[in-house]
Amino acid sequence: MKFLRDLLDKQKPLFQKGGKLENLYYLYEAGETFLFKPNHTAGIKGAQVKDAIDLKRMMITVVIAMIPCLLFGIYNTGHQHFLATGQTAGLWEDFGPKLLIGLELVLPIVIVSYAAGGLVEAVFAVVRKHPINEGFLVTGMLIPLVVPATLPLWQVALATVFAVVIAKEVFGGTGMNILNVAMTARAFLYFAYPAQISGDQVWTYLGDKAPVDGFSGATALAVAYNAGVEGENVTSALNTHNAAIGDSLYGFANLFIGWIPGSIGETSTLMALIGAAILIGTGVASWKIIVSGFGGAYLMGLVMNMFAVNEYMAMPAEYHWVIGGLAFGVVFMATDPVSAAQTELGKWIYGFLIGVLTVIIRVTNPAYPEGIMLAVLFMNVFAPLIDHYVVKANKNRRLQRATV
Amino acid sequence: MSKTIKLKKGFDIKLVGKAEKQLGDFKSAKTFALKPTDFIGMQRPKVTVSEGDTVKAGTPILFDKAMETVQYVAPVSGEIVEIKRGDRRKLLEIKILADTNISYEAFDKFSEDALNSLSKEDAVVQMCKGGVWPQIIQRPFGIVANPEDSPKAIFISAFDSHPLAPDYGFLLEGEDKYFQAGLNVLSKLTSGKVHLNVDGNATIPGIFANAKGVELNKFSGPHPAGNIGVQIHHLDPINKGEIVWTVNPYGVVQIGKLFLEGKYDGSKKIAVTGSEAKNAVYANTYMGACVDSLVEGNIKQDHIRVVSGNVLTGERINRDGYVGYYHHQITLLPEGDQYEFLGWMKPTASKLSYHRALGLLSFLNPKKEFVLDTNTNGEERAFVQTGVFEDVTPMDILPVYLLKAIMAEDFDEMEELGIYEIVEEDLALCEFVDVSKHPVQEIVRKGIDLIQYS
């Protein structure tokens, strides 16, 4: 690795103050620090040794936690295509072709997301003279996982640019943003181009093939909602959905494992839980938010059951965990430490309310079939308020002590 | 009422190179220095000697024009060889070439009985004149106390929980009589209690266990259980407008000696610690000793950093630098100014981390002692990770909010969030565990300065 180091050292003066490419210093720095951990040492006074962690390592841990979702999503994209077009019914039949179709659709989205977002990061780093932030490693992966595989690539690029600029850079970059960047990208798409990210037509890639007779591309959420409207039992509606192409495609087990249409990475509750295990095990994400998020959704589901004025409200509460993107959202979106509540008590409240709001939006709002996106964004906005009261309680304890 | 307090939050940084409880065979240091920079809060230091003057141990050589009664005295007798100044004539070091036989200034001497009837005023005068007053530190702010104040209580932490910290039982062996006398003097200075806080995890050295006239409290748990700020927070927290004093046990002994022997005794044991020390042992010397005789010939390799104090709160000094006034140890560390290929993602079990993120394996081996170099292991970033600072701060304080209030220079917010209760060392662990590599202690001092001088 010495030649790499020599190469970097040789180029360094070009980018340093007074060098020809001085303006691009932070681009050089990003590359340099990616390849080599810098040679900075502790200051004269204060801590003389430092923990082995840095932000890059923390962020890459989150990316690793998303890999199960990504891999599952790639295969599932191909699998759903084969199911809908009636080519094979078996899960592992045609493994290779399914994988290829998935890769063909998903990889470009990942690449476009990283490229578009990376470009914005780089431009801002150069113009605003701040280091390129590692946070985008995570955002760049999150965005592809929460959009359907059929999304046009230009929309991916546009949404990413919009989110990075409006949700992050205008606030001052990573660490300063109020909203979760990836959720902002999705919300942007949802409101700007609803035709490509909602409805029944976008979740399964058909290509130039015709779907089999009787195929419906509706997601489990839509099926559940319609059953509610029509007064049909939700679980049996889910169980008999798309009976023409397979048995219990929306049965609880399938919903849990995630062999269902949906956004690329969010269909599998199982994979999200594996991600959660990685995040909690490594201590990178707050287990309090994850636990309270699932808990909030379940409790709200039970409350709905108590009032059950329609069939959707009567759906067993545990179904809320496995339909839609709740699991993925709670594990990967709600736990973003910058946009989440930052006090420990606040995290419990924040996660809980995300779960509660998601179920309320799902069941009672006719316009939005899925609630997690809006619930997370809504609670992002309220997180500082929650923290404000937690911090205030801390201050009050100090004040009360003074008068005693 | 003595209290037993168990703390759960915190983190012990286990390092290679703890000093064995024996005295090493070191050449005695030739020069000694008093460094005005050791006294945080000293506003206008003024030297009262010139180069070439001879002094005795206990001769006043420095004072602060903002608090003129308090004298800072020579730790040894000898000749003033250099008064070192830095930029803008900032006073850095007053160096003394020591005599082989130390001679002492004579101060008033008291028998133990006479000590009991001594008035508070006379005690203060003797302490200020006799050079031991700077051992008394005021909270809030962590500055040398003002003799005109009367504190609501005095706190003494009888153990140091920092990494590789010296053992106070060994440091103060045989000084029981002076320690008790020092306590007796201190108890005159406050209308409140004198708290002596001992380590609840270890056997208590007799010098502390037998101390009379104090509240003996036990603290157990990981570092920072030994930090006086943490202890005060749990015993009798500081509110706005209140003043408490803290004294290191060494200072208590020094005070005792001043009264019983009538001399300023600057002799002191220093622990030589750290992974790069060939012989990690204690050395018998005087305050402000030059470290060259402790370092030369006692290091395993040449590319090292000498730290006066411990790795969390210490200060880098030159190889021929001087031990800080309040320090009882030096730490010898490998310097970490090397690049590491893909060092941010390589799995490592040899680097200590409080975290468990990808590839950080030190948590699998909680008993292991580590060799850590001075590399920062990353660059400074905005605050991202949350909840970690709270985990290593066993106080009802929200460190990140407090630090942000300081950065924003929001005075009300700083006060409300508890700036009066902390000094740098109380948040030193935050600086260690910080993912975003903030200079936490520097920020804390900036906040204290803002509050203190406005």
From TrEMBL, chain A:
It is found in: Cell membrane. One of its GO terms (biological process) is sodium ion transport. Its EC number is 7.2.1.1. Pfam families: NQR2_RnfD_RnfE. Keywords: Cell inner membrane, Cell membrane, Flavoprotein, FMN, Ion transport, Membrane, NAD, Oxidoreductase, Phosphoprotein, Sodium, Sodium transport, Translocase, Transmembrane, Transmembrane helix, Transport, Ubiquinone. PANTHER family: ELECTRON TRANSPORT COMPLEX PROTEIN RNFD (PTHR30578), NA(+)-TRANSLOCATING NADH-QUINONE REDUCTASE SUBUNIT B (PTHR30578:SF1). NCBIfam families: nqrB, PRK05349.1. InterPro entries: NqrB (IPR010966), NqrB/RnfD (IPR004338). The modification FMN phosphoryl threonine is found at residue 219. It catalyses: a ubiquinone + n Na(+)(in) + NADH + H(+) = a ubiquinol + n Na(+)(out) + NAD(+). One of its GO terms (molecular function) is FMN binding. It is an enzyme of class 7 (translocase). NQR complex catalyzes the reduction of ubiquinone-1 to ubiquinol by two successive reactions, coupled with the transport of Na(+) ions from the cytoplasm to the periplasm. NqrA to NqrE are probably involved in the second step, the conversion of ubisemiquinone to ubiquinol. It comes from the Bacteria. Its cofactor is FMN. This is Na(+)-translocating NADH-quinone reductase subunit B. Belongs to the NqrB/RnfD family.
UniProtKB/TrEMBL annotation, chain B:
It catalyses: a ubiquinone + n Na(+)(in) + NADH + H(+) = a ubiquinol + n Na(+)(out) + NAD(+). It comes from the Bacteria. Keywords: Ion transport, NAD, Oxidoreductase, Sodium, Sodium transport, Translocase, Transport, Ubiquinone. Residues 119-263 form the NqrA second alpha/beta domain. Residues 5-98 form the NqrA N-terminal barrel-sandwich hybrid domain. PANTHER family: NA(+)-TRANSLOCATING NADH-QUINONE REDUCTASE SUBUNIT A. Composed of six subunits; NqrA, NqrB, NqrC, NqrD, NqrE and NqrF. This is Na(+)-translocating NADH-quinone reductase subunit A. The gene is nqrA.
